[in-house]
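Revision sheet: structure tokens.
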Amino acid sequence: MRLKYTTDVSIGLTTFYLKITGFWLAVNRVRECFRSVAVIYTAFTVLFCLGIQIRGLYFCWADFTISTFIACNAVGLVMNFSKLFLVFIQKKKFLQLIRFMQKNFWHSNYDFYEKRIVASVKKMCTYLVCTFSFFSQFTVVSYCIRPAISNVGKNESDRALIFPMWLDLPLSKTPYFEITYVIQALSLYQSGVSYLCFDNIFSIMCLHAAGQFRILQYRMTNIHKVKNLYEDNENSNKDVLYLSDVCVAAFRECIRQHQILIEFCKIVDEVFRVIMLLQVLTFSMLVCLAGYQLFLVDLNVPMRISIIFFLSANMCQLWMFTYSCDTMTRESLRVAVAAYEAPWIYLPMDKFGKIIRKDLQIVIMRSRKACQVTACQFFAVSLETYTRIMSTAMSYFTLLKQGSIDPADT
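Predicted:
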């Protein structure tokens, strides 16, 4: 049967971002070379921005306010480069996951109810991906526009770059200022794209896997409606509740689909488990530092807008990957309930009836072990992880607020 492929906004946008960073399928030698160049360029731009932040942290260490702002940017860039490095190591498995989704998830060969499930999944993916992309991209834009606004009315010697360079060079003079500004803007944009693309595709993988588990539940529960799949069966017009051999064939097809989904979730965990651990460890720090800059530091309007977008992007990113993992975990557990609700009680106790009952027991036992993404196998990522990270961030913020109070004020 030929598959009819469909697409949506979330998949198209994420594909565009992954192609820019060089982590997409290459169908010929030219695109493979372009992909290699894009990966090198992305890594170079992230390291360039990270080097600027580390150098700035060295020169501004005495100023607590500026150093916390630079540290906030540096932590995000360190996590960004770590994701690039870890996905590059697992690139073969990562591309394997994309090929699998193209072949098995992103097509339209579903019945009416299954299409509704896929449509709801696409709607949620579009909502999450577009929201996170909006805040991430506007963070980059606000960082680029902020110095341009502050430079209005200033002399040539007083112009500010996106990030100070602290070099003994005439970078404020024309044309060095314009060249440096463009280089920083391009590097910052590429870093922003690489920051969001892997979280976008990860959420799409988890949510579509959850959708496939829902489709599997529907097929198991309605296994007596499979007669259209066996048009050559001479009894296709009869009630298939009494065609135990047909039900066994259909149920085994569901078992194969279940096994494929379990293997898919296993590979997703292998590719992203270390990334999840790094994000869980660093998000509390990022939210804390951004919150300190927003609520405890007297900032000008452009800087405050940049911090608001940065904090919103991090909150959205945290919600996106924890919600996706939690949804996939819950839907994988519900397969056991769907298998038990299959109309097996109406089947006769013949050879095929006994086989399907035995297979059903195995499916229920296996479904009690959830398919989940772990933080390097320390714990499973879920919505509970979101609340724990936010609680930790608030604790850090309270300590940082108390430590920043001048004793003379008390």
